[in-house]
Amino acid sequence: MLVTCPPDAAESILMTLLREHLAACGNIIAGVRSHYWWQGEISSDAESFIVMETTEDRRDQLMTRLRAIHPYECPKIIALRPDAVDPDYAAWTHAVTRPG
């Protein structure tokens, strides 16, 4: 899952999703500069980029929860479907995204 957000929100967003077992892991990449169209104008903002891993059966729940806690009106949430994942990593991801 790929997400951009305000730099001051990245840690909170990621930690919420980890605590709720919706994401197995996440990486915050700081210092991203986004340029985009918004409300008829080109905008530019400092952002953080979050890369997260989850399982296919938790993807929709993660996206729904992410929309609920994200501060943007229209957050960038992109789910990637990898065609190859190391089997041990996939098993670990599945194990840690199961609630307690």
Could you please describe the fold and organization of this structure?
The chain is an alpha+beta fold and 100 residues long. The protein has a single domain (2-45, 54-96), classed as Alpha-Beta Plaits, CATH 3.30.70.120. The protein has helices spanning 10-19, 56-69, 87-96, and strands at 2-5, 25-38, 41-53, 77-78. It has a 4-stranded antiparallel beta sheet, covered by helices on one side. β2 (25-38) and β3 form a beta hairpin. The longest helix has 14 residues, at 56-69. It is elongated, with a radius of gyration of 14 Å. The model has no long low-confidence stretch (mean pLDDT 95).
Structure in a nutshell:
This protein is of the alpha+beta class. Helix content is 34%, strand content 33%. Strand 2 and strand 3 (41-53) form a beta hairpin.
CATH topology: Alpha-Beta Plaits
Shape: elongated
Q: What percent of residues adopt helix (DSSP H or I)?
A: 25-40%
User: For the largest beta sheet, what order do the strands appear in spatially?
Assistant: 2-3-1-4
The appropriate CATH architecture is 2-Layer Sandwich
Compile the SSE list and pairings.
Layout: E1 2-5, H1 10-19, E2 25-38, E3 41-53, H2 56-69, E4 77-78, H3 87-96
Antiparallel strand pairs: 1-3, 1-4, 2-3
Key phrases:
single chain; about 100 residues; alpha+beta; Alpha-Beta Plaits; four-stranded antiparallel sheet; 3 helices; 4 strands; about 35% helix
